[in-house]
Design goal:
By secondary structure, the chain is α/β, with parallel strands linked by helices. α4 runs parallel beside α7, α15 crosses α16 and α15 packs parallel to α17. β11 and β12 form a beta hairpin. Helix content is about 35%, strand content about 25%. The chain has three domains: about 180 residues, P-loop containing nucleotide triphosphate hydrolases (Rossmann fold), CATH 3.40.50; about 70 residues, no CATH class; about 250 residues, P-loop containing nucleotide triphosphate hydrolases (Rossmann fold, 3-Layer(aba) Sandwich), CATH 3.40.50.300. The chain starts with a strand and ends in a 16-residue tail after the last helix. The protein is built from 21 helices and 20 strands.
Length: about 550
């Protein structure tokens, strides 16, 4: 048996007055051994991140540990002083945060920020620190470590920033590494690389890893043991094979059942009538440098031609930078394409004057990836949904009455219409965004990564709801995602984009069952955990 590195015993964390419950954590117990990866899973609000922050003693002042012990190297961190914790953080326990852009200082280079770990905790010279920084960047497989060390965070891609965070966390060879959702926002190929990297580094350094996630594919890929949390309590824990394939607790069973399988359901009969036709749509971005120097030309979309049958769902998949979102914004004319045609109900939106686009916008509506950023924080939820029809001439009383019906339709209580966006959960905000888009009774709905940030159970609810709305309202949907499991379940047709081009398209079952293009094959091979749900029935037939 490997030596136990961390033991959490009956840990409780009290929330301030007015919170939705008295405790964020109630009697949490778990342990992690050296050379072991323990995955903590659960939905948002289950207490996963609070538990990690309690171990690191990074809780806000109004949230306090009020019971239990956190034993690390014989010391109880729950009662340690701030000075003692400063010695533990970085050197003993290191943390990789979910969003590196908020965790990294935008005003300092990557090399400086990693080097700071050595400046604070060691007596190394500047020359030795620089050598260590480059060695770490090489360890985490960042291309051109010298250039990366001189770069600022915004100059690196999302995957490279996450690698830099891992390098910083590993700088002092900590005994315990806490990774808080480090791959949630990444593409499947980048995600696969980061998971492989963490596993390799952990195995080589014999580090204990506490990996927090809500993605069961990640659990299947990387975990030795699994701890399942719900409402601040541990409801199940055990070896990964036992928890994934023979879950005992109803909550664990519910979470695993909500994971979409990779196998597409049997194809539906599609309409011969195409409601939307894209022909040779192109979009190029040009960033001009000083006097033409350093100018950059990015061909975001290159001659894309696709058809959307009436009442069908067309999925557009690919990595970040493949051109998916640019194509979506061209379809709804948030940006103007450079060439080609976008024919919706006989009208070419690509060449339509702006005044006419504003009049015709009710025919095509968009649901955005981040509902919090796309909803006005100063307006009540009901006003946000009723706003579109009112602008298009519907009397306020009628628009408000229709908004109430839309709230019911998307599974929200109409009594919540007077609340502001921040008073809703992420899944509820996404439903408000969907209700707002449906308020104008569009013919085509464009959903841009509409479920990518949601927990699996909420994601399953939103997907089922979209499926039902498509059947009930006769909606035609363009569904943009980098989650191939989701695309397999909700899409009739799938187009795979790479570097602005469609490299493969066809029926979802054929694209996922028998991929022809090497890029599609690489995407499917990179999905964490593969199709560990293959014994299950698809969630939508």
């Amino acid at each position: 048996m490997s030596e136990t590195v961390l033991t959490v015993e009956d840990l409780s964390v009290k929330l301030p007055k007015g919170a939705d419950r008295t405790h964020a954590l109630g009697g949490v117990s778990l342990s992690i051994a050296a050379d072991e990866i323990v995955c903590v899973v659960g939905e948002s609000g289950s207490g996963k991140s609070v538990m990690a922050n309690a171990v690191m003693r990074l809780l806000p002042p109004e949230v306090a540990i009020d019971g239990g012990r956190v034993l690390f190297e014989g010391k109880d961190l729950a009662s340690a002083s701030n000075a003692e914790m400063r010695k533990v953080r970085g050197a003993g326990i290191a943390m990789i945060f979910q969003e590196p852009m908020t965790a990294l200082n935008p005003l300092r280079t990557i090399g400086d920020q990693i080097g700071e770990m050595f400046e604070i905790h060691t007596e190394l010279s500047k020359k030795d620190i620089k050598a260590r920084v480059l060695a770490l960047l090489q360890d985490v497989r960042i291309p051109d470590p010298t250039q990366a060390a001189r770069a600022y965070p915004h100059e690196l891609s999302g995957g490279q920033r996450q690698r830099a965070m891992i390098a910083m966390a590993l700088a002092l060879d900590p005994r315990l590494l806490i990774a808080d959702e480090p791959t949630t926002a990444l593409d499947v190929t980048t995600q696969a690389q980061i998971l492989k990297l963490i596993r390799e580094l952990q195995s080589r350094r014999k580090t204990a890893v506490l990996f927090i996630t809500h993605d069961f594919g990640v659990v299947a890929e990387i975990a030795d043991r699994v701890v399942v949390m719900q409402h601040g309590k541990v409801v199940e824990q055990g070896p990964v094979q036992d928890v994934l394939h023979a879950p005992q607790h109803p909550y664990t069973q519910q979470l695993i059942a909500a994971v979409p399988p990779l196998t597409a359901p049997p194809p539906r009969k599609l309409n011969d009538d195409h409601i939307l036709t894209l022909a040779n749509v192109s979009k190029t971005y040009r960033n001009g440098g000083f006097l033409g120097r350093g100018a950059r030309v990015t061909h975001a979309v290159k001659s894309v031609s696709l058809n959307l049958p009436r009442g069908a769902t067309l999925g557009i998949v690919g990595e970040s930078g493949s051109g998916k979102s640019t194509l979506a914004r061209c379809i709804v004319r948030l940006i103007d394409p450079d060439g080609g045609s976008i024919v919706l109900e006989g009208k070419d939106w690509a060449t339509m004057p702006r005044e006419e686009v504003r009049r015709e916008t009710k025919h095509v509506q968009m649901v955005f990836q981040d509902p919090f950023a796309s909803l006005n924080p100063r307006h009540k939820a009901g006003d946000l949904v009723a706003q579109g029809p009112i602008v298009h001439g519907v009397p306020r009383a009628q628009a408000w009455a229709e908004a109430k019906e839309l709230f019911r339709l998307v599974g929200l209580d109409p009594s919540a219409m007077d609340r502001l966006p921040h008073e809703f959960s992420g899944g509820q905000r996404q439903r408000i965004g969907l209700a707002r888009a449906l308020a104008l009774k569009p013919d085509v709905l464009v959903a841009d990564e509409a479920v990518s940030a949601l927990d699996v159970s909420v994601q399953a609810q939103v997907l089922t709801m979209l499926h039902e709305l498509r059947e009930r309202l006769g909606l035609s949907i363009v569904f943009i995602t980098h989650d191939l499991r989701v695309a397999a379940q909700i899409c009739d047709l799938v187009a795979v984009m790479k570097d602005g081009e469609v490299v493969e398209h066809g029926l979802a079952g054929e694209v996922f069952g028998k991929p022809q293009h090497p890029y599609t094959q690489a995407l499917l091979a990179s999905i964490p955990g593969g199709d560990f749900t293959r014994k299950k029935e698809p969630i939508m037939a």
